[in-house]
Design a protein that fits this description.
Layout: H1 2-10, E1 15-19, E2 27-32, E3 43-50, E4 54-61, E5 73-79, E6 89-94, E7 101-105, E8 122-127, E9 132-138, E10 147-155, E11 163-164, E12 175-176
Antiparallel strand pairs: 1-2, 2-3, 3-4, 4-9, 5-6, 5-10, 6-7, 8-9, 10-11, 10-12
Bound molecules: calcium ion (CA) (3 copies).
One calcium ion binds near residues 34, 163 and 164.
């Protein structure tokens, strides 16, 4: 599984979906993003793996640094309910040393709609050597959806450094639970 995941991340194709054999039958979705931001947070690719009990998201960036002055951070929006327009949750995080992260309930992309922190298990790790960020969100924390889709926005300190995965407010296809 590790081999397949690594191969998926390395492909230059715009998007691909792999259905892995095995009892878990996990669906792993990988997508690349252009070198389209001048900032070190520039998103290069994302991989979403909806496992049986958790969602694992891994993002690859240009150059992540520990220094808070680099200002790198991002928001992973989770759409868990197709009946209700827009995302239901947002994982809001700083990617520099000493910054925090939080999974919150949202009604839309606009921060004015962002609500309370979620009561549940989630975690984030930044790897500065690999320039990657790994998110883990327990399925229970997001009300156990059958499918999810994800939109990701990263940025540095300035608005000009904002970089979306694909188009602005663009979601991945729906990804079924493994
Ligand atoms: Ca990018
Ligand atoms: Ca929704
Ligand atoms: Ca982009």
């Amino acid at each position: 599984m590790k081999t397949i995941a690594t191969a998926a991340a390395g492909l230059a194709a715009a998007a691909l979906t792999l259905t892995l054999a095995g009892p878990a039958n996990a669906e792993l979705y990988g997508v690349d993003d252009a070198n389209d931001s001048p900032h070190g947070s520039d998103l290069y690719s994302a991989q979403i793996d909806y496992k049986e009990r958790k969602v694992v998201i891994k993002t690859v960036h240009d150059n992540l640094r520990r220094a808070p002055s680099s200002g790198s951070g991002g928001v992973v929006f989770l759409d868990t309910d197709p009946e209700d327009a827009g995302p239901e949750y947002a994982f809001v995080a700083g990617y520099t040393e000493g910054t925090d992260y939080q999974l919150i309930e949202v009604d839309a992309f606009r921060p004015e709609t962002w609500g309370e922190p979620v009561d549940g298990n989630y975690d984030m790790d930044v790897n500065y050597a690999d320039d990657t960020v790994r998110f883990e969100i327990s399925r229970a924390a997001i009300d156990r959806p059958d499918e999810i889709r994800v939109a990701i926005r990263v940025s540095g300190p300035s608005f000009a450094s904002r970089d979306w995965l694909g188009p602005e407010h663009g979601f991945t296809p729906w990804i079924a639970r493994g």
